[in-house]
Amino acid sequence: MVDFQSYNKSFINGEWVKGGASKRTYQNINPYDQTILQEISIATADQLAESFRIAKESQKQWAMSTADERKEVLRKVSGFLKDHREEIIEIIIRETGGSYIKANVEIDLTVDLVEEAVHMADQLGESKEVDALIEGKRNKVFRLPLGVITSISPFNFPMNLSMRTIAPAIALGNSVVHKPDIQTAMTGGVIIAKAFEDAGLPKGIFNCILTDLEEIGMIC
Amino acid sequence: MLTTPHSQLISFTGSTKVGKHIGEVAGSMLKRVALELGGNNPFVVLEDANIERAVDAAVFGKFIHQGQICMIINRIIVHQACYKAFIEKFVEKVKQLPYGDPTNSDTIIGPLINEKQVDKIMVIIENAKKSNAKVALEGKREGNILTPTIFIDVDNQSELAQTELFSPIATIIKADSNEHAIQLANDTPFGLSSAIFTEDLSYGEQLALQINSGMTHINDQTVNDNPMVPFGGSKASGIGRLVILG
């Protein structure tokens, strides 16, 4: 059992951290009966900026990882989601207000996405040779990581709509700074962060920022 | 979040308004984007459709998660030949959808995400009624739960038909012909998902290619996501395709 509700913080550089100086909190409530699920410590704009710096630095190592290392992490993430399936379904129902059917669809889709992303890991480092116009020359085309991926996801199907960006990004040697809608912080962020932490993803590759627009603004 | 020099791609799922803003900021910094935005997805029932199956699919594709899905059916466009029969069966089914506490595994209709959202939807329903939209099923509000509302004989140009409802409101529009149905389906700034019901699969495929949307499903509803299939919209529904290639 993982008590996901007790994770009311952001996950930055491999650690669960409280919001910084502003000290603001957000009440994550069950939309059906208005009970409070969590009192979340809101991350600040400075912490967000710091996450991008960390993600950039950490990505250099991750880009050099082997396909097997990346696959191993993703397989463990999918294992984590499957092992904790019942608790996760419970959270989806209580946090997003979704039906039992909806919660099952969401977890199944998320697991499928992660398992499909495992196959992507091989695409890094492969090169394709393309004919040259001039004899004696050789052309090679490589697929390389992009770097740091920014991910912003909504409240409706937060887990799969986050994972469809995160899993391929990590499979292909990128790092991620992810901001789920804070109304569904657990389904869209905490559970995913916990899964990657459990899977042994090196620190700084996946960062999950629990914050709101009042704190960070959307303009910047 | 958007202007950091350290990130090379922004992936965003959400409203078209915010998506356009993100696209502008990203463009000014030459960042790549994957923007999966709003939809106004048509569910088209052609003259020869299997009505029973079309009704079942429409109920699922309209009401799953209380309609709060970008791919949700937003307009149900039905050929005049089967219009009456479709409405009759659809209303009958929708009436019986269990609503209430989502922790009860029988519940289909649970709460919307927050009270503000419910307030917003109530205004949409009131405005539609004021503009004389015909109600085939009246919904009611209980806390954050809204039970299904069904409007029929809706004008495709009306505010109701042209709004992404994101709620358990079904909007049914009559089409004079199959061609007219496709024309109505296209008459929206959005283009995320769409669906066509017909017993003639090759004709369905031909018409599917005439709908300008990122994805079109034949004899299925609009809410489909397969990790192996390119996912994304055209027109105001976004840029980029989320896909995992095997």
Walk me through the topology.
The complex is a heterodimer of chains A (220) and B (246).
Chain A: E1 10-12, E2 15-17, E3 25-29, E4 36-41, H1 45-62, H2 67-83, H3 85-96, H4 100-120, E5 127-130, E6 139-142, E7 148-153, H5 158-171, E8 175-180, H6 185-198, E9 206-208, H7 213-216
Parallel strand pairs in A: 7-8, 8-9
Antiparallel strand pairs in A: 1-2, 3-4, 5-6
Helix pairs in contact in A: 2-4, 2-6, 3-4, 3-6, 4-5, 5-6
Chain B: E1 9-13, H1 16-28, E2 32-36, E3 41-45, H2 51-63, E4 73-79, H3 80-95, H4 115-130, E5 134-137, E6 141-142, E7 145-146, E8 149-152, H5 159-162, E9 169-175, H6 178-186, E10 190-191, E11 193-197, H7 201-208, E12 215-218, E13 234-235, E14 238-239
Parallel strand pairs in B: 1-2, 3-4, 3-11, 4-9, 8-9, 11-12
Antiparallel strand pairs in B: 2-14, 5-8, 6-7, 10-13
Helix pairs in contact in B: 2-3
What are the main properties of this structure?
heterodimer, A: 220 residues, alpha/beta, Aldehyde Dehydrogenase, Chain A, domain 1, three-stranded parallel sheet, two-stranded antiparallel sheet, 7 helices, 9 strands, globular, B: 246 residues, Aldehyde Dehydrogenase, Chain A, domain 2, 2 domains, seven-stranded mixed sheet, three-stranded mixed sheet, 14 strands
Number of domains of chain A: 1
CATH class of chain A: Alpha Beta
Number of beta strands of chain A: 9
Largest sheet: spatial strand order of chain B: 5-8-9-4-3-11-12
Count of runs of 4 or more consecutive helical residues of chain B: 7
From the spread of the alpha carbons, the general shape of chain A counts as globular
Low-confidence stretches of chain A: none
Strand content of chain A: 15-25%
From the alpha carbons, calculate the radius of gyration of chain B and give it in angstroms.
Answer: 18 Å
Structure classification of chain A? alpha/beta
The largest pleated sheet of chain B is described as: 7 strands, mixed
Which chains share the greatest interface?
A: A-B, 55 and 49 residues
CATH architecture label name of the largest domain in chain B: 3-Layer(aba) Sandwich
Q: CATH topology of chain A, what is it called?
A: Aldehyde Dehydrogenase, Chain A, domain 1
